[in-house]
Amino acid sequence: QKEVAESKSGLIFPYGNVEKLEEAIERLLSNIDLRKELEGNAKRYVQNLSFEKHFIKLKMIYEKVLKNKF
């Protein structure tokens, strides 16, 4: 859920709660402005992700693990 911010980049509902899922779908279907806003925010979020940032974080984790192991 960290990747989805309620009403910013998506709509969150409890796992398995069909009623809440239905409400979220109805909300999206009835509100074009909300759909456009969520779409734009989600695209911006994804564009800010990069393989390089992910690789650097992963490398730091591996280095920390290896340092503590030996």
Kindly describe this structure.
By secondary structure, this protein is an all-alpha fold. It has three helices and no strands. It has helices at 18-30, 32-48, 51-69. 0% of the residues are buried.
Beta content: under 5%
Mean pLDDT score, rounded? 85
Rg result: 18 Å
Helix content: over 70%
* Poorly predicted parts: none
Biggest β-sheet description: none
Distance N to C terminus: 35 Å
Q: What is the count of β-strands?
A: 0
Q: Which secondary-structure class do the elements indicate?
A: mainly alpha
Could you state the order of secondary-structure elements as H and E? HHH
User: What is the molecular shape?
Assistant: elongated
Number of helices: 3
Task: Furnish the topology, listing elements before pairings.
Blueprint: H1 18-30, H2 32-48, H3 51-69
Name the features.
mainly alpha; 70 residues; 3 helices
Compact overview of the structure:
The protein has 70 residues and is mostly helical.
